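Predict the 3D structure for this chain.
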Amino acid sequence: MLVGGIDEAGRGPVMGPMVMAIAVIKKESEFKLQTLGIKDSKLLTPNRRNQLFDVIGDLCKTAVVEISPEEIDEAVNSTTDNLNWLEARKVVELINRVKADTVILDCPSNNLEAYEEYIQHRVKDKKIKLVVEHKADLNYLIVGAASIMAKVTRDRDIEKIKKKIGKEFGSGYPSDPRTQEFVKKYWDHKNYSKYMRKSWDTWKKHQKENAQKSLGEF
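Done. Predicted structure below.
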């Protein structure tokens, strides 16, 4: 039996993509995840996550999907969509890419039943068993493995963006002063702002402040 886990990294940042990953392993090999010390990525150091990334890639079948700031903004700003349903669609995409008998999901929605039903209705293989829970990344090792895949991929994406634009902006999270300063300075920069989520309050407040300044000057 093949057991899969899905998790995301980068749901909350104002900078960069959200990354979702699936990891699938044979049920009888699942003990190897515990032997390796795999757990939710937030409980591991960056160095340990990087070490485990390649090991998980060898041990499991994996796939990742990267969701751009533009796609996130489109969902958040929509009257008929939101971030949870966008995430659910990416879950379907991952399940359809990697074969599994059971897939365990870390669910972002308060309505577990509706979330599960939405996904079950859209996956190609209707025989797949879904386990949809909150805190699944803490409770299931295979979801922890997926969380490591997602987190390392996103961290590497952030480093690539910094290299490309030649600027340091910290972690990309609104709680990071370096990120706040970067967004404040470059919120409307044609080359930098495309990496920002414009549906986030962190970005919108600078747009609003500058609009009010322009009106004041007028």
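The radius of gyration is 19 Å.
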